């Protein structure tokens, strides 16, 4: 298992907080005086062991809730075990800009659909044995690995518009990260976009 944003895992150190609270048990008791004991109700006392078990379960629930929250932000994913590239094959990363600006009309179709077509043309220029990365502004876990042509095409046509926007340098860094996982003889990256100001922080090489 790998993580899309591993830096969030440092937040797991926060798990020490509920443990410290549990160990020191910062509960405060208030002394109440009664003038007449006949106003007191009989209270069923819990045994010490039952009380400890209850406190332990509460602590465990808090730790699990916090851990799940951290992992959710870190976005774990399982790399494709079949992503190794055979010797002599190529690794190809294709970014398709699916931001809202790509909904603009192009020639007979939206810019997003046009970008998908261009991406398909790029893939068709390579061999069946090559490996591919499908990348969008969403940076989903399933887009962080290299897959075969058929899997890549399925990912391509599942792409939908999103409010998320990533800049060029961030996109290139993510492409390089995926391509570096392979030992392909040739590694190539493509960016399909309308290159709005929101995405262009530097011109791609």
Shape: elongated
What count of helical segments does DSSP give? 5
* Proportion of beta-strand residues: 5-15%
Major β-sheet annotation: 3 strands, parallel
Biggest sheet: strand arrangement: 4-3-5
The level of helicity is 25-40%
Q: What is the total domain count? A: 2
Based on secondary structure, the structural category is alpha/beta
Give the SSE string: EHHEEHEHHE
Q: Estimate the mean pLDDT confidence.
A: 79
Query: Nearest-angstrom radius of gyration?
Result: 27 Å
Uncertain runs with pLDDT below 50, 5 residues or more? 80-87
**Number of strand elements:** 5
Q: Between the first and last Cα atoms, what is the distance in angstroms?
A: 32 Å
Q: Can you walk through the features of this model?
A:
- This protein folds into two domains: 2-77, no CATH class; 90-192, no CATH class.
- It contains five helices and five strands.
- The chain has helices at residues 16-24, 48-74, 111-124, 149-157, 168-179; strands at residues 2-3, 76-77, 90-96, 131-135, 186-192.
- Mean pLDDT is 79; it is low at 80-87.
Which helices and strands, and how do they pair?
Blueprint: E1 2-3, H1 16-24, H2 48-74, E2 76-77, E3 90-96, H3 111-124, E4 131-135, H4 149-157, H5 168-179, E5 186-192
Parallel strand pairs: 3-4, 3-5
Antiparallel strand pairs: 1-2
Helix pairs in contact: 3-4
